[in-house]
Write a structure and sequence with these properties.
The complex is a heterodimer of chains A (458) and B (244).
Chain A lengths: L17 E7 L5 E4 L3 E5 L12 H21 L5 E6 L2 H5 L1 H22 L3 E6 L18 H14 L1 E6 L5 H9 L3 H29 L3 E5 L2 H12 L5 H20 L13 H8 L4 E3 L21 E3 L13 H22 L1 H13 L6 H4 L3 H11 L5 H21 L7 H4 L1 H10 L5 H8 L16
Parallel strand pairs in A: 3-4, 3-9, 4-5, 5-6, 6-7, 8-9
Antiparallel strand pairs in A: 1-2
Chain B lengths: L4 H32 L18 H10 L4 H21 L5 H24 L7 E6 L7 H12 L3 E4 L6 H10 L4 E5 L6 H14 L5 E4 L5 H7 L3 E2 L3 H11 L2
Parallel strand pairs in B: 1-2, 1-3, 3-4, 4-5
Helix pairs in contact in B: 1-2, 1-3, 1-4, 2-4, 3-4, 4-5, 5-9, 6-7
The chains are: A alpha/beta (458), B alpha/beta (244).
């Protein structure tokens, strides 16, 4: 890892709304500069996207943005990020995605001019490469529409660039189901790191070419998959917590390549990225229950600079359309945080303490998001001379923290969770420092028909 | 010295009882190995059975001892996976434990394969499964596939991003098979309706099961599928009801 020292070493400085390296946007948002803003994401109701329906698709996006920004104005919002996380067809056929951005951006500009509401669009194309199995991470023609959407989408009004990239997922999916922590570490700290470097170099170059913001990635397909599987009781929660920690070494590569934040909402590794690099982050928790359940509804808020709902379908609720309702929920959450920030250190610290203490010992995945633990684990993540060693050391530190919380009686873990702790520790301790030795160790254990080493520069 | 007929019959009876008890013991041991996920002797899982024989070795011994292969399937493998499925449904074990059981069953099935080919062993039927066109999510599909196989069905896994034509092609190769459709996205669940219609056009009486995060029983009814299952064990239960 390029980073050798934490930017935030004091847990009390890991605070919502405040980042050492705030990001300023064209319409005047200063993310991480003392205020938390809402980040709204929404998706279509159950419908097809094709030539026949495309006008209806455009209508959904424009009406939703209008409705949400109307509500934001009504609630005296300080500013909004609209995340446009594309549906497959919108990246596969970039002209659809570009047209949606153009139309949404016109509305954002209109609200900025008429109401002074600063709103920006985060553009998040799909990583189409996973459509090919085994994936051609570096040579796939599917990279072309992805990059075209980034490039022309920025011109159309997308100011923050993000993606949920999928390098390593070929290995991770099975490793998650088998609770194979070495497989997960191989997927994230070897394949994921290498793919992130390849992809983010391109994204950062594109962003710089138009003066836009290369924001960040998310280990959604890895650590959030683990979290959702743990919520369904498919895999142990202690395992999911370790996957989250390991994902840090993969997501931080975007910053190493020049991304500046705000990191993506569903990347719960965000607090670690904030501590290590100083960037502002987007987070989601209780207000993202519309998209997925989680055990970290409050604690996720503790050091957020943008507060997101992850995604909600544009359907009618009793109060109105769902995205408008979620706009309101997000606004009330950020209003509370901003009031605490305005009221001074004592108030913001108390609010953060409540957000943390209400979740911390209910689940190991919450435990590893508490600011004290984030700093302690982040320090461990920086020890070692390879991403493999960084990830292993971070995961072992997280395991220490989980075990200590259980032994001290603060966190109760059922027997079927506890069984996994020694197995996970043994597996982690068997991982060598050196990437090459680790790759040699892992290859015989993996189904090599599922991934192509040369596509990762190996 | 001549033995009396009654003594000889007694001896044969005792021998039969002895062999019967060996066979019963092997059937019970294979069931246990599959239930706890002990694949073979080399397998380190579960830690408390390190170095002990697994499903592979036990099945080899059982076949050599003359245990009928159908009995191994019906009295060891299928009941073991039913126990595993039940424990999983009751949140008593995690997926990796269930997967180890499936691997152990797979190791036993390797030994039974020749008997399947000869017709000496029969599965309950064929289940064709795939994630629908436009959707790449396969974790749920794989779980269902594994549990259904563990329940004694032959699996034809078509993978992800599967269009209607490939389901129909698989049905032509496996007439009478049950079809399972999986989707995770609100935009791809729409494909399910089209695939169900196409399958109905080809073969109106094919049973179709659906699953995935955005779908439910109401959606299942609307698109004309036969059953919605929220979890893998529900899929196994539904399939077993079809042949009951």
């Amino acid at each position: 890892m390029l980073y050798k020292k934490l930017i935030i070493e004091d847990p009390s400085a890991l605070m919502f709304g405040l980042a050492p390296k705030p990001v300023s946007t064209p319409r005047g948002l200063v993310i991480g500069g003392g205020k938390v803003y809402s980040e709204l994401n929404f998706t279509l109701p159950e419908m097809r996207i094709n030539q026949t329906t495309v006008q209806e698709v455009y209508g959904h996006y424009t009406e939703t943005v209008k409705g949400a920004l109307d509500r934001a104005v009504h609630l005296n919002s300080a500013g909004v990020i609209i995340e446009f996380e594309t549906l497959l067809e919108m990246t596969r056929y970039p002209e659809i995605g570009i047209e949606i951005i153009k139309r949404m951006n016109e509305i954002c500009e209109d609200y900025f001019v008429k109401h002074g509401l600063p709103t920006e669009i985060r553009l998040t194309p799909n990583d189409l490469r996973e459509f090919e199995r085994p994936a051609l991470q570096r040579t796939s023609k599917l990279l072309d529409p992805m990059m075209e959407l980034f490039e022309k989408g920025m011109t159309a009004g997308g100011d923050l660039l993000s993606i949920e990239s999928t390098g390593g997922k070929e290995v991770s999916d099975e490793a998650l189901m088998m609770c194979d922590i070495k497989g997960v570490l191989f997927a994230l700290a070897v394949l994921g790191v290498r793919d992130m470097r390849f992809l983010w170099r391109k994204i950062v170059d594109l962003a710089r070419s138009q003066g836009k913001i290369a924001a960040g990635d998310s280990a959604c397909g890895f650590a959030n998959t683990a979290m959702v599987l743990a919520e369904k009781k498919y895999i142990p929660r202690v395992f999911a917590a370790l996957v989250r920690v390991i994902s840090v070494v993969r997501s931080v590569v975007a910053m190493e390549e020049g991304a500046v934040g705000p990191d993506k909402d569903c990347g719960y590794e965000g607090p670690y990225l904030k501590a290590i690099t100083g960037i502002p982050i987007s987070m989601e928790g209780k207000t993202a229950a519309c998209a997925h359940l989680s055990p970290i509804g409050n604690i996720a808020c503790a050091c957020a600079d943008l507060w997101s709902n992850e995604s909600v379908q544009n359907i009618k609720l009793l109060s109105g359309m769902a995205p408008v309702a979620y706009m309101e929920q997000l606004e009330y959450d950020v209003r509370l945080m901003n009031e605490a920030l305005k009221a001074g250190t004592l108030h913001r610290d108390i609010l953060q303490q409540l957000l943390v203490s209400s979740d911390i010992y209910t689940d190991p995945q919450a435990l590893v998001l508490a600011p004290d633990n984030v700093i302690a684990i982040s320090k461990a993540l920086l020890t070692g001379d390879s991403y493999v060693a960084n990830a292993r050391n971070g995961a072992l530190k997280a395991l220490d923290i989980i075990e200590e919380a259980h032994t001290s009686g603060k966190m109760v873990l059922p027997e079927m969770e506890l069984t996994w702790l020694p197995l996970l520790r043994d597996d982690l301790q068997s991982i060598p420092d050196d990437e090459e030795r680790f790759v040699e160790m892992m290859l015989p254990m993996l189904d090599q028909s599922k991934f192509i080493l040369s596509e990762y520069g190996l | 010295m001549n033995k009396s007929p009654s003594l000889a019959a007694n001896f044969v009876n005792k021998l039969n009882t002895f062999y019967f008890s060996i066979m019963e013991e092997l059937i019970a041991k294979i069931l246990e190995a599959v239930e706890v996920g002990k694949v073979d002797q080399k397998s380190p899982f579960p830690p408390q059975m390190r170095g002990m024989e697994g499903a592979f070795e036990l099945t080899t011994r059982a076949i050599e001892a003359g245990v009928p292969p159908q009995a191994i399937l019906d009295r060891s493998l299928i009941p073991a996976m039913e126990i595993v499925g039940r424990k999983f449904s009751e949140n008593k074990i995690f997926v990796p434990q269930m997967l180890m059981s499936a691997k152990a069953m797979g190791a036993a099935m390797v030994q039974l394969k020749p008997f399947f080919a000869s017709g000496a062993v029969k599965t309950k039927g064929t289940f064709i499964i795939g994630t629908v066109k436009g959707d790449l999510h396969d974790i749920g599909k794989n779980l269902v596939s594994m549990m259904v196989e563990g329940g004694g069905w032959t699996i034809v896994d078509l993978g992800v991003d599967v269009p209607a034509e490939r389901f129909i092609e698989a049905l032509t190769q496996h007439p009478g098979a049950v079809v399972g459709l999986s989707a995770l996205l609100t935009t791809t669940m729409v494909s399910m309706g089209e695939i169900v219609s196409r399958i109905r056009e080809y073969s109106s009486d094919t049973r179709i099961l659906i699953g995935g995060a955005p779908v439910n029983a109401d959606f299942c009814r609307r698109i004309g599928a036969d059953h919605y299952s929220p979890d893998p064990q529900g899929a196994v239960n539904y399939l077993n009801r079809l042949i009951a």
